[in-house]
Structure formats: structure tokens, C-alpha cells
Amino acid sequence: MADIHANGITIHYECFGPPGCETILLIAGLGAQMIRWSVPFCQEMAARGFRVIRFDNRDAGLSTHFGECPAPEFGALSEALAQGRQPEAPYTLHDMTEDAIGLLDALSIERAHLVGRSMGGMIAQLAASEHPLRVMSLTSIMSSTGNPSLPGSAPDVMTMLTRQAPNPFVDEAGFAAHSLAFARRIASPGYPFDETANRALILEEVTRAYDPSGFGRQIAAIAVTGDIRSRLSKITVPTLVVHGADDPLVPLAAGKDTATSIYGAEFMVIEGMGHDLPPALYEMVVDAITWNARR
């Protein structure tokens, strides 16, 4: 693991596999740290002959946090969007896209395969659109286009997402219970939910960097970026869109919209998959990413 300066911020990253191989850059989702791309998943990918890089987005994990900028309230964001006003935010997904490209620059990587999940999928989409010479292939997992006409998250999921969690340094048990309830709700119903592993991951993220305001700023970045479909029509690299048939946070229609918006994109629906990546699906997803990277 190491830190590097790119696009005006510090980015924390980790590499797997030999440096001489083609690079796969893994981009994490909303509020998620790079460890959500688990070590076994990264190792599985590296074993296919790739150099795999995972990193913390801005305002997550050990990369730069924008604590001097208060997090916009979710209610205020929703009200502004409903009224057709542009919400205020300290940065957008375009800035986060430049972070990813800046990381490649700093590591002297000319071109890479981009794989993004959830919000990270939108960042990867924008990178493939705005930096076509830097992207070899694109895999967008459980993501969306920002199309305002798409169905939203299940109401109870949105309530859980935006509800304030207990402070983990005051009430660790309460925080773990809160976070586990959400993780279980969005998990893949067709696969076992490992409560022990999820609890350990939740508490590891707290130990690495606990910053709920960063989560709020990332939500604002998604909101102010808005609909990116017009940009997706410019993507020409091999593209794979992967989505769970049972995703309650980003419904299947969002994945279909992504695939429809990118010419020639392949659309892979995984039955029983929600808004997570259980270990039982690692081999299937790695196979799909590898196939897309080499076609």
C-alpha cells in the first residue's frame, strides 16, 4: 500500500500482480473504501495475468478528505433537484474521474482496463467517455447513468441509507447493528450472507477512516453530476455492464439503461445478486471482466 499525489490530492492505493502486465483499475462505490474490493477478489483477477490496482476515492479511506466543506443535507439536495435547481457541492463525479486518471498518470500507466461498482461505475463510464485513449475496456457493475426517469431505490433502502448511524466510537455495537442491517438488506438474496465477515469489514473501515460527512459529499457529487447518458454515447471501448437481478438500491433498470446508452455494450444480468459482490460470485465476475478485457 502507498500514497501518491495526483489531481491535487493524495490518493491511497494498493497493487496486486506484476507491474509488466496490463492494468485493471478498480473504482469503489459510494462511501466505500478500497477494501470493499476484497483481497481474494483482487488476487483472483491478478492470477488471470493482470496488474490490479485498488484505491480509496477522495473523501473515503486514507485518501484526501474534504472536511473543510460541510456535507450537504440529503433533504436539501432532493429539494433542489425537485425544483430544477443545481445543488451546491464541493466537487462532482468529473473531479473524481480526474482523480482516477491522475492516479494512472502518477503511476506512469498509459492505458488501463477500468472496472467500477455503483458510483465507481459512473466514474469509470465518464473516464471511458472523456479519456478514450487511456481506457482499454470498461466494466460497469451495479451502476447507473443518472437518468432521472429511472426507478429509484426501494423506499426502505433509501431510508436506511440516509438515516444517521450511531457514533462507532461511542456505541460500537449500535453502529455495527445499524450497518449490518443495511448490508443485509442490499445483499444478494440468492447467496449466503456472511454476518461475521461483514461485521469485520464494517469495523475495519471504521478503523481505517471514519468520516460520515465524506459519504454526504459523495452523494452530492452524484446529484450535481446528474444525467450522463449524452457522454456515454461517445464510448467506443469494449464495454460490459453487470447488474444483479435483485438489486434494491440501484434497480436492474439502471443497468439496462447503462448498456443501452453505450454502443455495443454487453449486458450481463446475474440472478440472485443484489447490491454487493458475494465471494460465491467472484469467479463468475472475474471471468466476465477478463473476457471483456481481452475481446
Description:
The protein is an alpha/beta fold and 295 residues long. It has a single domain, classed as Alpha/Beta hydrolase fold, catalytic domain (Rossmann fold). It is 41% helix and 16% strand. The chain is built from 11 helices and 8 strands. The protein has an 8-stranded mixed β-sheet with strand order 1-2-4-3-5-6-7-8, sandwiched between helices. It starts with a strand and ends with a helix.
Features:
295 residues, alpha/beta, Rossmann fold, 8-stranded mixed β-sheet, 8 strands, 41% helix, 16% strand
Q: Categorize the overall geometry.
A: globular
Major sheet: order of its strands? 1-2-4-3-5-6-7-8
Query: Which stretches are poorly predicted, pLDDT < 50 over at least 5 residues?
Result: none
Total DSSP helices = 11
Report the span from N to C terminus.
Answer: 31 Å
User: Would you identify the CATH H-level superfamily?
Assistant: Alpha/Beta hydrolase fold, catalytic domain
CATH class: Alpha Beta
Total strand segments: 8
Structural class: alpha/beta
Q: Which series of helices and strands comes N to C?
A: EEEHEHHEHEHHHHHEHEH
- Biggest pleated-sheet summary: 8 strands, mixed
Overall number of structural domains: 1
Mean pLDDT: 95
Q: What is the CATH architecture assignment? A: 3-Layer(aba) Sandwich
CATH fold name? Rossmann fold
Strand content: 15-25%
Q: Radius of gyration, rounded?
A: 18 Å
